[in-house]
Design a protein that fits this description.
The chain is mostly helical. It has four helices and two strands, in the order H-H-H-H-E-E. Strands 1-2 form a two-stranded antiparallel ribbon. A hairpin with a 7-residue loop joins strand 1 and strand 2.
C-alpha cells in the first residue's frame, strides 16, 4: 500500500469514527438506531464506503428483530445519518453521511 493510500484510508477512518461519536452523542436517535448505525459503520471500508446487509442478518448479529432493524434504518435515514438506495426485490445499499 502506498503512503498516499494509507493517508487516504486514515482520513476516511477518522471521518467514520467522528460520525460514530456524533451518533452516540445524539439524544434524538434511539438505542436501536445507534446499534444499527454502529453495526453498519463497522462493516464499511475506505475501499467500499457502502454496505448492503439484509435486515435479518443485522438483527441476528445485534440480537434484535428485523422489524426493529427496519425502524432503526428508517429513523437513521429520516434524521440524515444514512443514505439509502432502495432496490425493489433485492437488498438495499446503505451509505453513511460522512
Amino acid at each position: 500500500m502506498t503512503e498516499e493510500k494509507k493517508q487516504e484510508t486514515a482520513r476516511w477512518l477518522r471521518r467514520r469514527d467522528a460520525w460514530m461519536r456524533s451518533l452516540v452523542g445524539n439524544t434524538f436517535v434511539s438505542r436501536n438506531g445507534k446499534l444499527v448505525g454502529f453495526h453498519m459503520a463497522l462493516r464499511l471500508s475506505a475501499k467500499k464506503p457502502y454496505c448492503y446487509p439484509a435486515m435479518k442478518s443485522i438483527g441476528k448479529a445485534l440480537g434484535i428483530s428485523p422489524r426493529h432493524v427496519a425502524r432503526a434504518l428508517k429513523e437513521l435515514e429520516e434524521e440524515g445519518w444514512v443514505k439509502v438506495q432502495r432496490n425493489p426485490g433485492r437488498t438495499s445499499f446503505y451509505r453513511l453521511d460522512l
